Amino acid sequence: MANLKHAARLIIEEVYGQGRVEVLDALCHPAYVSHDPLVGDADLAGVKAYVRLLRACFPNLEPRILGLYVDGDTAIAWWRLQGNLLRRLLDVEPHGQHITLEGMTLFQFEDGKLIEDSSHWDTFGYLRQLGVVRPLEEPTARGSGASDMPETSQS
Predict the structure, then answer these.
(1) What pTM was computed for the model?
(2) 63 and 81 in contact (C-beta within 8 Å)?
């Protein structure tokens, strides 16, 4: 159990926090795959490329583990990343925008090696912080507000 916690901590603190992608070589199974809402599915090389890009865009990225749990061959990490955008990303010009990402990653191990992980985080909030998307505007105050609601058909 302690080894799985240590492995999950290394991924968050050393890989994402310090950009030490070589740490993944010792931790990952040859069939390793990662799932992420922004990047999609990636193998080991894809994850390394993503971490390098993330670290280049946010060189001061700081991770914080908010919770770390293990049950059998599964580790779950609740984490927060913070940093400033210092390189163009997603067609967004860098102006030192401070971002905060919070999410969870489920790490699945097989024979002590990480075979699969799945991250779930506030992707929309991240894109909002970068200015790529904006939240929906509140409906205007007209009468009872009923006219602001889309009409639905009933069969």
Answers:
(1) 0.82
(2) yes
DSSP 144: T
Residues β-bridged to residue 74:
71, 108
* Separation of alpha carbons 63 and 82, rounded Å: 7
Question: How many whole angstroms from its chain centre is CA 32?
Answer: 17
Residue 70 corresponds to which amino acid?
Answer: V
**Residue 59: CB partners within 8 Å, gap ≥ 6?**
83, 86
Q: 72 falls in which pLDDT band (50, 70, 90)? A: very high
Average pLDDT score, the chain: 89
Tell me the CATH number of domain 2-131, given options 3.10.450.50, 3.40.50.10860, 3.40.50.2300, 3.40.50.150: 3.10.450.50
Compute how many other C-beta atoms are within 10 angstroms of the C-beta atom of residue 83.
Answer: 20
Q: How far is CA 80 from CA 5, 9, 14, 30, in A?
A: 17, 13, 14, 28
14, 70 in Cβ contact below 8 A? no
Is the distance from CB of 80 to CB of 100 less than 8 angstroms?
yes
